[in-house]
Amino acid sequence: MTTTDPTATTDPAAAPGTALSSVESAEEHHHGYISDKSRYLARLKRIEGQARGLHRMVDEEKYCIDILTQISALKSALDGVAMGLLDDHLQHCVVDAARAGGPEGEEKMKEASAAIARLVRS
Q1: Tens digits of per-residue pLDDT, 46-57?
Q2: Among 72, 83, 74, 71, residue whose Cα is nearest residue 47
Q3: What pTM value is reported for the model?
Q4: 94, burial (CB in 10 Å: exposed 0-12, middle 13-18, buried 19+)
Q5: Which position has the higher pLDDT, 43 or 5?
Q6: Per-residue pLDDT tens digits for 42-81
Q7: CA–CA separation, 100 vs 37, rounded Å?
Q8: By C-alpha distance, which of 68, 116, 67 is closest to 90?
Q9: In which region does residue 61 sit, left (phi positive, over 0), alpha (psi from -120 to 50) or beta (all else)?
Q10: Non-local CB neighbours of 50 within 8 Å, separated by 6+ positions
Q11: For every residue of the chain, which 3-state class applies, written as one string?
Q12: What is the per-residue pLDDT for 15?
C-alpha cells in the first residue's frame, strides 16, 4: 500500500532542477514596470490609435502641417512611455543589481547608459 505525505507539494517548482512556473518567475524576477503595466498598456493603446490616425490622414491627403503636428504628438507620447520605463528600470532593476554588486551591477549600469544614449540621440 502506498501512502501520500500530506505535507508533500505537487508544485513542480519545488522539485530540484525544475523550472519555475510563470507566476512564480514573474513574482521573483519582475520588471520594474510591472506595477504600472496596465497604465503602460493603456498608453500604448492610445499611441497605436494615434499611429492609425496618421495613416488615415496621409491616406486622405490631409494638410501637411496637420500631419506633422500629429507626428510630433505621437513622438511625445512615445517619449513619455520611454522615460517612464527608463525611470522604472533605474529604480528597480539597476538599483537591485547595484545592491547585489559584482558583474551584474556593472552590466545593468552599462545597459542603462546605452539606453539613455539611444533616447538622447533620437
Answers
A1: 999 999 999 999
A2: 74
A3: 0.67
A4: buried
A5: 43
A6: 999 999 999 999 999 999 999 999 999 999 999 999 999 9
A7: 25
A8: 116
A9: left
A10: 70, 73, 74, 77
A11: CCCCCCCCCCCHHHCCCCCCCHHHHHHHCCCHHHHHHHHHHHHHHHHHHHHHHHHHHHHCCCCHHHHHHHHHHHHHHHHHHHHHHHHHHHHHHHHHHHHHCHHHHHHHHHHHHHHHHHHHHC
A12: 37
Contacts of 3 (CB under 8 A, 6+ apart): none
Q: Within 10 Å of residue 89's Cβ, how many Cβ atoms?
A: 18
Give residue 35's identity as a one-letter amino acid code.
Answer: S
Distance CA 99, CA 56 (A): 49
Q: What is the pLDDT of residue 74?
A: 97
Distance CA 80, CA 40 (A): 10
